[in-house]
Design goal:
- The strands form 2 sheets. A 7-stranded mixed β-sheet has the order 3-2-1-4-8-6-9, sandwiched between helices. Strands 5-10-7 form a 3-stranded mixed β-sheet.
- The chain is globular.
- It is α/β, with parallel strands linked by helices.
- Helix 3 links the parallel strand 2 and strand 3.
- The protein has a domain of 121 residues: Spore Coat Polysaccharide Biosynthesis Protein SpsA, Chain A.
């Protein structure tokens, strides 16, 4: 039996896009090549695919509409999905997350998947493996995959490429890792979360802290996040020193705001802590500066830039130390370089905050991704 337009929506997929006219077609076409649609059709189930351009000043929405029209006509399993564009006037990754999870996503969907518009899949089974992992593991609340830098597929790698890939190897030592570029989460969990606009990080850090502790009611349980084997996607590594430094500044600023938000949720009464979405949403709508004030208070206590968030200076070293003996030796140059970059990035983020600024999300170039499908080795995102 094949799915039809009347089949129940089991999975909702959002593709978030901010001025991605040049790459949105490749991302959506890669998405529609996923085996998930055939599997859902076979089960007489359905999914929805939403492209959410936010604050775009280019033709992202128009290109997405064109791709959707093509897929409705030509996809062999067109009955297994519904697709539409939800155009948002206001830019922002986190307010896009809120609109999708709490407004746009089908209320009957058991799982919601969030995907960035500048990635492609190197394995056709990635989404289905993530979906299947959540179905078969009730203890897991989030499914993630491995993010592979496109430079991993280059035959001739530069020194900068090798350092970048070594950094990814060290990031792979993290337990319960969620890649903000692509992950799936149970809807019932997602709808208990609201993202502050001034949370300067990708959503994954805050989500991991909530789901792995059952909203700060239990000890950390890494099994709440599952990463199935052979599930991966590819993204562009930063190609210039300036882009790399700007990205690290964004990461350090994000780590600081996530730390502040986690400390806030931890001190909430139990009834609000296990479902913090209403109180955070209330703060956002009635006191737009609430996160800014908490950040200012944090900066008064963190007198030096290396105190921007706990373990700011040691987290890269700890990742390096978790590696096996030989890798610990070969990856030492990358660990040392990463430590130096972290120092610089923390200082830049600290003074960014000190000058009264919160938002920082630089736009990087996104050239065409060249990869050899089916046999690429997956590494973790740095």
């Amino acid at each position: 039996m094949n799915a039809t337009s009347n089949s129940p929506v089991r999975v909702s997929i959002a593709v978030r896009a901010w001025n991605e006219e040049q790459v949105i077609r490749r991302a959506l076409e890669s998405l529609f090549q996923q085996s998930l649609f055939a599997e859902l059709s076979r089960r007489n189930e359905c999914c929805e695919v939403l492209c959410i351009p936010n604050g775009c000043t280019d033709r992202t929405a128009e290109v997405a509409e064109a791709v959707f029209a093509e897929q409705r006509q030509s996809h062999p399993h067109a009955g297994a999905f519904r697709c539409r564009v939800e155009n948002m006037i206001e830019a922002g990754r986190n307010n896009t997350w809120n609109a999708y999870v709490h407004q746009f996503a089908d209320r009957g969907a058991e799982f919601v998947f969030l995907m960035d518009a500048d990635i492609v899949f190197d394995r056709e089974t990635t989404l289905f493996k993530m979906y299947e992992a959540l179905l078969n593991n009730p203890e897991a609340h989030v499914a993630s995959d491995r993010a592979v830098k496109e430079i991993a597929f280059k035959k001739k790698k530069t020194l900068r490429d090798r350092l970048s890939l070594a950094t990814s190897d060290m990031t792979g030592t993290i337990t319960a890792q969620i890649c903000g570029q692509l992950y799936g989460i149970r809807s019932e969990i997602a709808r208990r979360i609201w993202m502050p606009k001034d949370l300067g990080a990708p959503d994954d850090g805050f989500i991991k802290a909530l789901v792995c502790t059952d909203f700060f009611t239990r000890e950390l349980n890494p099994r709440r996040v599952i990463m199935p084997e052979n599930a991966s996607h590819v993204f562009n590594a930063y190609t210039s020193v300036a882009e790399m430094l700007n990205n690290q500044k964004r990461q350090m600023a994000g780590q600081a705001t996530v730390h502040i938000l986690i400390e806030y949720v931890k001190q909430l009464p139990l009834a609000e802590r296990i479902n913090p979405a209403p109180v955070i949403r209330y703060n956002e709508e009635n006191d737009p500066q609430w996160m800014r004030r908490r950040l200012d208070a944090h900066l008064r206590e963190a007198r030096f830039f290396w105190q921007l968030f706990p373990n700011a200076l040691s987290y890269r070293i700890r990742r390096w130390w978790r590696m096996s003996g030989l890798k610990r030796l070969t990856h030492f140059p990358a660990a040392a370089a990463g430590f130096a970059v972290t120092l610089m990035a923390c200082a830049r983020a600290y003074y960014h905050f000190k000058h009264g600024q919160v938002h920082y999300w630089p736009k990087a170039s996104r050239p065409e991704i060249e990869l050899a499908r089916s046999s690429g080795s997956a590494t973790a995102q740095s």
